[in-house]
Design a protein that fits this description.
single chain, alpha/beta, 7-stranded parallel beta sheet, 7 helices
Length: 239
């Protein structure tokens, strides 16, 4: 089997305007791939990233299956799908408003499922589906993230199930689970950073570049025998 890229590949990043998603966009663009990414409200950030990388920004709600089907019809088959959209709620399970939990489920679980399935319908053989999870899918070291942890652990079953269904087409499906990563959502200089580092073997936040490098490897030609797995990159936060 050849390990060479036969052509420029089309990469769709769901939730790519900021943080880890933006670095994933940059990484694939630097590799010469055709990159399309979606964003929600961060129009200015999305426009700046598109101009920087030569990628295409499309506004779309990841939880809206109809919108995702329309987007995929418009852009055509994608070789690689990276699902990075997510909602994080940090509060006691008894204090969260039910509609907020429903929105989290719609984005983190339903969106991941429907985007993956719809992309897979037309994805060429040897394609890649990569779901961005969280170390909290395995490890919940503090209270307040029950809904979020539930949503991220659900990606394990999705990856394993789709890996079985798509294996005959050599399409791989994997989860990347970052730990504390230096983004706007969880900056390395936040007041609680020291508490996080105390639970880690490597006592620092990860960088978006480190996570994006793992995503790029799983999307590459040398990762064609890795499927149905959960790849944790968390500095030992969950061990």
């Amino acid at each position: 089997m050849s390990m060479q890229r036969p052509k420029q590949r089309t990469v769709l990043v769901i939730g790519g305007s900021r943080g880890i998603g933006a670095e994933v966009v940059r990484t694939f663009a630097q590799q010469g791939e055709k990159v399309i990414f979606t964003y929600g409200a961060a129009e200015a950030a999305a426009s700046a990233l598109a101009a920087e990388t030569g990628s295409v920004a499309r506004r779309a709600d990841a939880a809206d299956r109809t919108a995702m089907v329309k987007l995929l019809e418009e852009i055509g088959p994608v070789d690689t799908l990276v699902y990075n959209a997510a909602v994080l709620i940090y509060a006691s399970a008894f204090d969260i408003d039910a509609p907020d939990v429903d929105r989290l489920i719609d984005v983190n679980i339903r969106g991941a499922y429907h985007c993956s399935v719809e992309a897979a319908r037309t994805m060429p053989d040897d394609g890649r589906i990569i779901l961005i999870g969280s170390t909290n899918g395995d490890c919940v070291p503090f209270p307040g993230i029950a809904a979020y942890a539930m949503s991220k652990s659900s990606l394990h079953g999705l990856a394993r199930g789709l890996a079985r269904e798509l294996g005959a087409r050599n399409i791989t499906v994997n989860v990347v689970q970052p730990g504390p990563t230096d983004t706007e959502m969880n900056p390395a200089d936040a007041p609680h950073a020291g508490q996080l580092h105390s639970a880690m073997a490597i006592k620092r936040h990860g960088t978006p570049e480190e996570v994006a490098s793992l995503v790029a490897y799983l999307a590459g030609p040398k990762a064609g025998w890795i499927t149905g797995t959960t790849q944790t990159i968390d500095g030992g936060f969950g061990i």
